[in-house]
Every structure is written in structure tokens, then in C-alpha cells.
TrEMBL record:
Protein name: ABC3 transporter permease C-terminal domain-containing protein
UniProt entry tagged with the keyword Cell inner membrane: no
Record-stated family: Belongs to the ABC-4 integral membrane protein family.
Stored Pfam families: FtsX
Residue ranges occupied by any ABC3 transporter permease C-terminal domain in the UniProt entry: 192-309
Transmembrane segments: 21-44, 184-208, 244-265, 277-303, 324-344, 350-380, 401-423, 627-650, 677-701, 713-736
GO terms assigned for molecular function: transmembrane transporter activity
Organism in which the protein naturally occurs: Amycolatopsis rifamycinica
Subcellular location: Cell membrane
Domain of life assignment: Bacteria
Keyword annotations from UniProtKB, A to Z: Cell membrane, Membrane, Transmembrane, Transmembrane helix
Gene Ontology terms: cellular component: plasma membrane
Membrane-protein topology: Multi-pass membrane protein
Amino acid sequence: MNSLQIALRVLRVDRRTRTSAILTAIGVAVATGLVLLLATLPFATQNREQRALWQGEHHVGYQLDGPQKLLFNSATDYFDGQQIVRVDIAPIAGAGAIALPPGVPQLPGPGETVVSPALGRLLQAHPAAQLGDRFGKPVGALGDGALRFPEQLVALVGHTPDAMPKNAYPLADFPGGKASPDPLLMLLSWVGIIVLLVPSLVLVASSARLTAARRERRLAAIRLAGATPGQVTNMVAAETTLSAGVGALLGLLISPALHGLASFVPWAGGTWLAADFALPIGLTVFIVLAIPVLVVLAGVLGLRRVLKNPLFATGGHTKKPLHWWRLLALPVAGAFFLFAVTTVKETGGIGLVMAGLFFLVGSAAIVGPWVTSAVGGTFVRIWRRPSALLAGRRLRDDPKGAYRASAGIVLAVFAGSMALTLLPTFESMAGGGRSYVDSVLYVDATDQNAARIVDQANASLQKYGQSEKAVAVGEVYLVKGQAPNRYGHRALVLTCADAVKLTRYGLTPENCTGGPAVFGDSAIDLAQYKFAANWEGQAVAAKSGTRVEAVHPRDADLSDTLIVDPAALPDGVKLTDYTVVAPTTDANREIVRTALAGPAAGAEIGSRDQYLYNQQIELGDLRRVTVIGLIAAGILAGCSAAVATAGSVMDRRRTFGALMAAGTPVRVLARALRMEAALPALVATIGAGIVGVLVGVGLFSMVDARGIVLSPWLLAPVVLGVGVALLGASVCTPALKRVQAEPLAEE
């Protein structure tokens, strides 16, 4: 009889071994499914960006050489807090046929537009003055192959060449090339693999431990019967391969369902197409084979003491105490991580940082048992209650086995603390924007088209029955020194009354009395400055008698920008850069935007809330990923804690049966089991929370040198970890009652 036949025979006749094998297969399936999902995320982002390359948002893949066939401009528009990608095109007469990107059915003519289905529904649901007049007459719908995600709002707008924006690109074709994956989601996927794979493997190890004692006695008997170490190893490898192989195949089978669920999770403004989650076949095969191999390797390595001492299961031995040097694993891993994050800019790669994070996660498995043993020693020395003495003795005698129940919880708390350290800091960084108040819309213009945009926008506003008026705000510089080595201040040219109404500088009507002035954060000495249309342009001295007034801006990011009344602008300064600005209300904001969109001819119309749009989208994505990751890690940790606690009871069936037979109440044994499971977890989770915060600080230092923002939510992972530990320990009472109900002679 070969090793596989023996393994099958054991599974048929031993119910407890079957239970362990089933739980092991489930754990391997979860680990395989999670890794397949996380590994495919970078490819998914690359697939969706590949479809959207033709939209030209990032100015990548522009074919500026070769025969020019079309004028192209890409910008972002907004409606009711949603971003619209606007692509303006104008075919060049006589240049030849233009190849259409996948999903684009036709080229729109002047005054026509081809829109995405989601934008088409918005056009039908709202008056033309609010949205439709921005784009023209819809003549077609974009297919999924032209959209980043199904809900994306995209408009392909046709023009004549003379109606295109001045900054339009003459191209040989629509933008193309090869897209790159989202670097943020790639980083998060690697972090997720490291952080979630370990609890999954802990669940597998805990499941395998359900029959550890029985397996060791069985293998010891087989060794005494004459089996060689190789035969024993083959038997265990065959038994583990069966459950791990079935689990890996099950994980492969459930991965499409996981991908389907992931397609409903928004990222970067929208959900996913099911086809986005396509992993290369070679990488899929590698993952499906690698995880069972790791599980089998762990099972084989666990045979060392049986092979060295076949009588171990029945003869017993005195376990050596854990050495203090285990504590060095954490500072060594921490030092490596610190080196990685401080040198990432020089090395230019994230691989070393991920390796440091992996070593930190792995160091928990070395330090954790020592902490567990120390907690057990404290119980033995201080407490004298029977349950505390039993728990302390167990923690001292088998700290590795006792820590196993806490390992998954430690990783969950570590990941949660790291994420909740970064999130509040990223939220505190959100902000900024142009010089105008939140309700103002603005579009950049030049001296050639600023007046035209103002006139046409005001005519449209009058047609729509709105009282608001657009104004042109010029840009000038107050400079010292000679070009090109000048320095000085940027200034906006607009009347004091308009500055009070439109800007964030904090001017009041009282500031507007007393004649033309220059307003700034401090009263500068105009005798030392000259006016210039740009840094290199001709500089002209200020008019005599121009007053200077200090006005503290509402926001610190405006402190270096000045306000110049047009009447204070000296003769000889010809402005070249303008911003057309229009005030709005909550009721007419979209109408004003539509009025600006027509004369702007595809130029981006912005406002402060649109400036913050991408920041808020990224923060929402990070919050969502953090919540999903914490839930997944918590579930895995709770399952592994429950299985490890049940396995602990199964391992000591003889001991507990003898204690019950001697009259020890089940409640005392249950209290001891809860203490040995929960209290080490409490100590370990606090330590994991502190390390998670420090790692979060290190990761943030790679992005920004400013300090971290600490939030009370940092305590949430520790509270969650303690709760999960108590929940996992709650299975001890049912397991003890099962031991009580079965005859001791069966062991």
C-alpha cells in the first residue's frame, strides 16, 4: 500500500482527520482566491486604462509626428459633482481617413456629439440649459470598449478646425499606446497579499493542528512498526497534498465569483467590467501551485520531532524555554524597513520597502511566542486561581501553540493600525485650489479670446434668464531685478468690488474706499517693484500715488498673491493671461457652467469643489479599501482563532478528560481556555497596534515630509482584535462539552 492509499484510508475511517482536511482545504481555498484576486488588480487597472487611452486625459501616446489628420483636445467637465471627460476633435480637411478607437461608432460633425450611455441618460433627465447645450446634438453612443468603467461620463464633441481651443494638438490619430497599471492600487494589492495571506495560512495551520496529537501518535506507531523517515514524510505529504490540492482548485473555481464581487467595488470614480479581471495564465498556474506547495512544505517541516523521537507522543519530553534573542527579530526587521523607506528615493523602487514590510510581518511569528510565554509566566507567579494557573502553565509549556490562536488577530490589528494612521493624514492634506471662492467658476483664456468668452457667456446667461455676469481677471507680476533672475509676486488684476465678491482674500467693502490700490498679505514697498506681464517681460514702474493696503487672506495658500485694481495698473503693461470668472449659486451653477462651456470651446472650466474632486475620490477609495481589508482580516483572524482554540482542546483531550474525571468543573477549564486565548491576544494586539502606527508613519514619509495626524480611530483595530479574540475563545466551552460527552477510552 503506497502513501496515497494510506492517506485515503485514514480519511475514510477517521472523522476528526476528515474534519481537519476539510477545514484545511477551505483555508487553502480562501488563501488562493484572495491571492488570485489581489494579484489581478494591477492588470485590471491596466485594462481599464487601455480602453481610455483614446480620451487623452494624461497626454500620453500623442502621435505628434507623421501626417496630421485631426485637431485634438481633452479636458474634464463636471455636472452635479460628477466628472465628465470631454474630448473635442476637428478633422483636418483632406488629411485622409481617421481610425476610430474601439467602442467609438463614428466621428461627430460640427455641433454634434457622441456620448457614453450614462451621460446620455443625464442629458435626457436634465434641461439643455443645464447640460445638453455644452456638447451639441447627440448622434451616437460610445460602447464599453471606449469607457474606463461602465458609469463613466464621456462626450466626444465635433468642431470645425477654427472653433477648436488654441491649445489643441494636431495629431496623426487618436492617442494610443500601452497603458500602465494604477501605482496606488498596485501598492495596495501587494500590501493586501502580505497582510491577508498570512492570516489565511494561519487558518490553514490551525486547521491542520486539529488532529496534531492524534497524527503524531499514529506516525510514532508507524515508525515503531518499521517505517522509514522517508515513508512517514511521504504519508504526511500525501495527506496534506490531498486537502491542499482540493483547496487550491476550489480557490481557482471561486475566483470568478470573487472577481464578480470586486467588480462592484468602485475605484477611481467607477466600478469595473467583468473582463477587466484577467490574470495571465502563467501567473495563475504559479499561484495555484505555489500555495499548496507552501502548505505541504509546512506540514513536512512539522514532522521533525516525530522523525527524531518516535516516542514523543507517548513518552513526553521537557520543552526548552524560548530564548530572549527572539525579541531581536522585531528591531532588526524594523531597522531594515526604516532603511528601505529612507532610501526609496535613491533606489527608485518599492520592492525593498515591500520586503521590509514582509520581514516586519514575519517577525511577529518569532516575537509572539516569547510574549505569550512571558504572559504565562506572569500568570504562574501572580495569580493563584485554578483557571489562571492552568492557563499560565499552558502558555509556559507550549507558547508556540498558544500564540497560534492570536497570530491572525495580530496581523489584522497591524494592518488596521497602519491604514488608520495614513487615512487621517491624507484627509488633512486635502484642500487647496485657486484664488476664488467655492461658488465661482473659472476658465483660463488669453488676451485674444478673453473678451469674446466674456461677451458670449454673458449673452448666454441673459438668454437663460440669469443675472450673474462673467468678468475677465488679468494676471500680472510685481518683480524685482532683471530677467531672467527676477523674483517677486503674482497678482490678479480686478476691481476691489469684484475681489470682495469673487476671491478668498478676505477683502471687505471698507477696503474699496480711498482710490486704486494694491492689496497683499503685507504692505509691500511699491518703490522697489515694477509691473510686468510675465517674468521675462518688460517691467514698468508703478503709478505714483497708488496706495498699498495689507489684507490677510482667508487661506494661507494665497499669502504670496496680490490683488491689483485695474486703475492702478501702469500704462505700457499689456496683459496676456486672463481667467474668465463667473459667480454662481447652488440653483444656477450648472446653467452658468453651460454658458461658459460654449465659448470656452473645450477648455476646462473649474471651481474649488472640482479642484478637490480627485482628492475626495482617492480618499473615498482608501476608506473603502481599509474597511474591506479590516473586515476580511477580522473574519480570517476570528476563524483561525476559533479553529486554533478548538484544536487546542482536541490536542489535550486526554488531559481534559482526566481532569473532568477527577471532578474539575467544565466552567473552570473553560475559563482557563478563555484566559490563555484572550490575554496573550490582548498584549499582542497592543504591540501590533503600536508597530502598525510606526509603519504607517514610515510609509507616509515616502510621500510627504510633514508630520502624521493621529486619530482616536487608531484604537478601533485593537478593540476589534480583542473582540475577535474573545469570539474565537468562545468555542472552548462547546469543545469541552464534546470531550465530556465522549468516552475517555476512545483516546
